[in-house]
Design brief:
alpha+beta
Length: about 140
């Protein structure tokens, strides 16, 4: 069995685009997955044996972090890599003193986020034919 080495690194927004596009909106032009404020965000990638497999972008405002465009390449889904990345990000922002983490979760993925103590809110919306729910986690020690 081959040794698997995982590493989480801060990356550029342009490094997130191929995975965002391939996983989230493959039938749209790549510009569709670019965010207007990408240059103000922190972007992280999980690398497996040197290959980027999962990405997430963090946007900070008013001591709250929204994570967006969290995606794992399809061939690496179900292997725990997204979990490793999200857990690491949650630990990082909690240590940084952030009071709340939130996201716009695809409704069909909300159970995944509940495993990280993100709670569904009553705010739902639709974009591109997909239903979303806003989920959040408050860090009690940082309020």
């Amino acid at each position: 069995m081959k040794n698997i080495i995982t590493e989480i690194k801060q990356i550029t927004s342009s490094e997130t685009l191929p995975i965002r596009h391939k996983v989230m909106w493959p039938n749209k032009p790549i510009e569709y997955v670019e965010l207007p404020n990408d240059e103000n965000a922190r972007h992280f990638g999980l690398f497996v044996n040197g290959e980027i497999t999962s990405i997430v972008s963090l946007f900070v405002e008013n001591n709250e972090v929204q994570f967006r465009k969290f995606a794992t390449l399809i061939e690496f889904q179900g292997l725990g890599y997204g979990t490793i990345l999200l857990k690491s990000i949650i630990d990082l922002i909690e240590k940084e003193g952030i009071k709340k983490l939130w996201c716009n979760a695809r409704v069909e993925k909300s159970k995944f986020y509940e495993r990280f103590d993100l709670k569904p809110t009553d705010k739902k919306f639709e974009k591109g034919g997909i239903e979303y729910i806003i989920m959040e986690k408050t860090f009690a020690n940082n309020v």
